[in-house]
Design brief:
Blueprint: H1 38-53, E1 56-60, E2 68-70, E3 74-76, E4 82-86
Antiparallel strand pairs: 1-4, 2-3
Length: about 90
Amino acid sequence: MEGTCVFDPDCFATDLAEARPRLAACPFGAGPRNCIGEFFARVEMQIHLMVIARDLRLRLEDPQPAEFVAGMNLVSRRDFIVFPELKAPLGS
């Protein structure tokens, strides 16, 4: 279907990080015309994460010390992958 966006999780693969444009993950835009709902959306994402995270533990694939790059935003030098695991089996 033309004009339809399709989510492709493979585009975030670690081995493609160097080829990704620097602002590829800038969902709310930047500058004076950035998204007016950014603050609300970020608060909503934090609330959803807190609700979900109560039952999960996030395990880093490759724990290394954090390194940051300062630019328009503070970003991680490397991608980091976490795996969700249930804290306790369901029904216990």
